[in-house]
Amino acid sequence: MNTPQDSLSQGFEKACQGIHQLSQSSEIPNFESTGTRALEAWFLGPKAENADELERFIVEAIRDQAFWRRNFHPSDPTHITGEMKRSPEYLEAMDSLTEGYQSLLAFLKKSVPFFSMRYQGHMNWDLTIPGILGYFAAMLYNPNNVAFEGSTATTILEVLVGDDLCKMLGYTIPDRAAIDKGAIRPWGHITCDGTVANIEALWSARNLKLYPLALQAALKEDPALAAGKQIVISRSTGESLPLIELDTWSVLNLKADDILALPTRLTHEYQISRDTITTSLAKYSLQSLGIQEFSCRFLSQIDKSPVFLVPGTKHYSFPKAAAILGIGASNTIDVPVDKDARMNITALKELLEQCLSEQRPVYTVVGVIGSTEESAIDPIRDILTLRAEFRQLGLEFTVHGDAAWGGYHISVIRDDFDMPVPLANFAAPPPPAIPLKQYAIDQFQALGDVDSITVDPHKSGYIPYPAGALCYRNSAMRDLVTFSAPVVFHGDTEPTVGIYGIEGSKPGAAAAAVYLSHRVIRPSKSGYGKIIGQALFSCKKLYARLLCMARPEDPFIIIPVPRLPAEADGSDIQQQTQFIRDRIVGKTNEEIINDLAAMKLLAEIGPDQNILAYAFNFKTGSEINTDLAQTNRLNKALYNRLSINPGDDIYGYDLIVSTTDLNAAQYGDIFINDYKRRLGVEKSAGVSITVLRSVVMDPWVTETTQGSFLDILEDEFRQAITEAITEIAPI
Q1: Integer Cα distance of 180 and 177 in angstroms
Q2: Closest CA to 450 of 477, 426, 468
Q3: Same domain, 267 and 358
Q4: Which of 112, 146, 157, 667 is 20 to 30 A from 510 via CA?
Q5: Are both 547 and 449 inside the same structural domain?
Q6: Which of these, 370, 467, 452, lies nearest to 411 by C-alpha position?
Q7: What is the DSSP letter of 554?
Q8: 502 with 383, same domain?
């Protein structure tokens, strides 16, 4: 592990400054454009309505690639001659390629129809045209962003994209003058996915927690650092003491920014070179010693192993991270969720109090910004408030936001940035867009204060795979997970991003895809905010439709996981449901938008974002089934009808959703017992509930010339539930 802000980091920062200076000229791409406002121009379309335009751009990329090749030393000899192209061997090879290619094209039609309004299965939908074009054009150059020398164009794009993502998420990027005065600069980079980003975030949080122990030992024992022995640091409780005098518990609870500033302070205040610091720390660091030797040397005074806390709705990448990093699953603490599937802040406080009383160090607390099952947003603002409270008591930890799914949703409220104000006479008609819940807005406004954020452009950014990302509030965090080798890094002037994080080789085409999509569709209200706002609008309407779909005579009920506002605040549930039935269900978008009361309620109903989980239960006569096992069988039978079986012809599928099981081990009793009550199975044994899930990502599910597409979806649900009830009836 290199020291934070070491020479590599300094060189990278210098290179980045040069890039951003160049980006103001015509030599380097930048984001200073108005973007566009026509949503219909951003996608190929459910019926490939923009096929001609996409084909024209793709052909242009191929022709431009050919032009580039022909003009690189044009006097060099050619190799593939016309005579060769007429040879039997060449023609045979082309025939083989044609046959194989046509066979592949035919087989690929078995793929999932993500583009269709009937697809609501997973966090995947159509790709933006600029995302496709950026990936395709850059792919022809095959850049590898592991090192600048293999990606002289796309590394620059990755740096620009990293900054753009930071700004979208709420991190402020200071200018050079502010940095010189001590302002903290954020930094972001592209990863292959959110799993890798989450693992890297925990890796850096773990190394941050343990780094000062290694430095303390080096200061005490290595004569090369003798000049810095009296370096002072503030404890989380306020008082300042020399680092070498702090006990282990105090060292394990220092503030992140204070830790990350230590190497720079040793250099500036005590004239110890960075090379000297790096060489000295190599004898003490976790990266060198390994977790077992490091623990034996430096954690003997701590009776309890360090932990990190995650909500019960966590992504599977977190237990994976615990295993890879040697933290262990037993040191991953699940925080129960509340009735809205959000982290239970009272339970979190109790767990932190327990860690404090046991003197158990906490690496980080993870808040999920859009869980993958319910799209619930954890109370980030309250988590940060709790950290401030426990900081005064001597317990310090970082906060990581897992916004892999939900990060781009902040664009719904993000004002335009880094581009001129649109022309006053530009008046593209806005599509219907629903505002986020006020609760969600409150959490997004606090997001800029967390220490790291995972966000996936290949989810709500509609970018081709693979394109995840990780952003740090303090760029020095990246140096805690830095590895370099002479073969990929050749000096301070190269803006290499591959030395940071887990991955080695990675496609520069991903950075190009995000760059072009962000340039054309800004990650703000006027761009991605329009796409996601419309998807939210459609998801809210689907929630309202499912909520009111079951008639008194129907042999089933539908219970969405998200509660009505009336259920949460204790007001009249039946009255609110009737309002939704009268003023939202069956109404056109225009009618809803012109009804202020309907719009106000629509903003607050449904999930925090646009993944909707729900379950069906059946009735016998007028009596609702009370057996949870039977309810689960019904929903599994439904899923079997509404999911794709391997090898099947996809043209036979009329509606595609996904499923998951919600269980008390992860979610806690409060959530599970309340949802069982709402389903009518509260007296039944069992703590796992099977639900269906609709991911609504398309921005025009309710916008068709023939009427609302929700009518079609309801018909498909009715047919499927009728068949499913018939299937389980004999038992």
Answers
A1: 5
A2: 477
A3: no
A4: 112
A5: no
A6: 370
A7: S
A8: yes
Q: Please give the backbone phi and psi of residue 25, each rounded to the nearest 5 degrees, phi first.
A: -100, -175
CB 328 within 8 A of CB 305: yes
- Which tokens is 477 given? 């965090």
Q: Residue 58 is encoded by which pair of tokens? A: 């793709």
246 contact partners, CB below 8 Å, separation of at least 6: 216, 233, 235
CA distance 671 to 656: 27
Same domain, 348 and 388: yes
C-beta contacts of 668-676 below 8 A and 24+ residues apart = 668/312, 668/336, 668/337, 668/344, 668/347, 669/336, 670/336, 670/337, 670/338, 670/339, 670/344, 671/312, 671/336, 671/337, 671/338, 671/339, 671/341, 674/339, 675/339, 675/559, 675/561, 676/628
Angstrom distances, CA of residue 657 to CA of 232, 234, 345, 610, 643: 57, 53, 31, 14, 6
Residue 391 main-chain phi, psi, to 5 deg: -60, -40
CA–CA separation, 416 and 422 (whole Å): 10
Phi-psi region of 290 (alpha: psi -120 to 50; beta: other; left: phi over 0): left
Q: Can you read off the two tokens belonging to residue 88?
A: 């039997």
**309/229 same-domain check:** no
Q: 158-186: per-residue pLDDT in tens?
A: 999 999 999 999 999 998 888 888 899 99
Helices and strands (H and E) in the chain: how many:
27, 14
- Residue 709, amino acid: F
Q: Which residues pair with 556 in a beta bridge?
A: 618
The CA–CA distances, whole Å, from 232 to 12, 216, 347, 505, 731 equal: 28, 11, 36, 41, 72
Q: Is residue 165 domain-resident?
A: no
Go through 574-598 and write b for each residue having 16 or more CB atoms within 10 A of its CB, e for each that does not.
eebbeebeebbbebebeebbeeeeb
User: How is residue 328 written in tokens?
Assistant: 């262990």
Same domain for 236 and 365, yes or no, is: no
CATH number, domain containing residue 495 = 3.40.640.10
The dihedrals phi and psi of 441, each to the nearest 5 degrees, come to -60, -45
**546, 192 contact by CB (below 8 A):** no
Q: Looking at the domain assignment, is residue 34 inside a domain?
A: no
Inter-helix orientation angle 274-281/194-221, to 10°: 100
Report cis status (omega within 30 of 0) of the bond before 466: yes
Predicted pLDDT of residue 32: 58
Which residue range forms the structural domain that includes residue 250? 203-298
**Residue in this structure with the two tokens 């689960």, named with its chain if needed:** 632
Q: What confidence score (pLDDT) does residue 33 get?
A: 54
State how far the Cα of 184 lies from the Cα of 178, in Å rounded to an integer. Answer: 8
Alpha-carbon distances, residue 681 vs 667, 692, 724 (angstroms): 17, 17, 19
Domain end among 242, 271, 298: 298
Confidence class of residue 425 from pLDDT cuts 50, 70 and 90? very low
Among 490, 520, 550, where does a domain finish? 520
User: Residue 518 is encoded by which pair of tokens?
Assistant: 């962000």
Q: How far is CA 448 from CA 290, 343, 445, in A?
A: 33, 19, 7
**378 against 416, higher pLDDT:** 378
Between CA 479 and CA 204 the distance in angstroms is 8
Residue 687 has pLDDT above 90, yes or no: yes
Nearest alpha carbon to residue 270 among 235, 225, 233, 240:
225
Residue 551 and residue 484 in one domain:
no
State the pLDDT confidence band at 543, using cuts at 50, 70 and 90. very high
In tens, the pLDDT along 427-446 reads 444 555 667 999 999 999 99
Q: Is residue 243 part of a domain?
A: yes
Pairing assessment for the beta strands 398-403 and 362-368 based on DSSP bridges = parallel
Tell me how far CA of residue 95 lies from CA of 22, 89, 92, 279, 508, in angstroms. Answer: 47, 10, 5, 60, 32
Give the H/E segment covering residue 403. strand 398-403
pLDDT given for residue 483 in this prediction: 62
The count of structural domains within the chain is 3
Q: Looking at the domain assignment, is residue 589 inside a domain?
A: no
Contact 697, 535 (CB under 8 A): yes
